[in-house]
Amino acid sequence: MSLRWVLFRTMKKIIIDLNLRQLEFHAKGIPVKLYPIAIGKPTTPTPEGLWEVTRKIMHPGGILGSRWMELSIPSYDGPYGIHGTTHPWSIGKAISNGCIRMHNSHVEEIYPLTPLGTKVEIMKGNNFEEGWANHSKNNQVYMIKYGDTLWKIAKAHGVSLEDLAALNNIKNPGSINPGTIIKIP
Prior knowledge:
Largest sheet: 8 strands, mixed
CATH class of the largest domain: Mainly Beta
CATH superfamily of the largest domain: L,D-transpeptidase catalytic domain-like
Distance between the termini: 31 Å
Structural class: alpha/beta
Number of domains: 2
Helix content: 10-25%
CATH topology of the largest domain: L,D-transpeptidase catalytic domain-like
């Protein structure tokens, strides 16, 4: 079993706050990153509830942008999903037919880290920002992306490479894996 497989299979969760129009990506129970989103317009609202990712498609075409992650939301009018968009100006608005739109670069970032069965909670508020603040105030976290180096991460956060490696018990700074969550001092 490879380390990459283990990281891919670690517990992931997505929380969507309709009031804030934000998607919060969690890994290992820790909120890792916030993304701005577009949600359903008042006549076709995004359904609240606890759902899961049931299907994924790369390059679905049309307004769906570069990635599609279908949700288990029951519907007579077609599926709901989290997807990219060919209309980036729509992000931050209540404008969709109920789906959650993201910038293509953002959905491409979480797509490979979101296995089928990932839980997706959609809600209107409920201590969303407070939960993020509690996890990140004293222990800021960062999820390593493809192309990252520990040196680049240290520089971007204004910390030394040595401090970053020591805090995360990284013996070989040249060997880091995408999807790994690290603490930032």
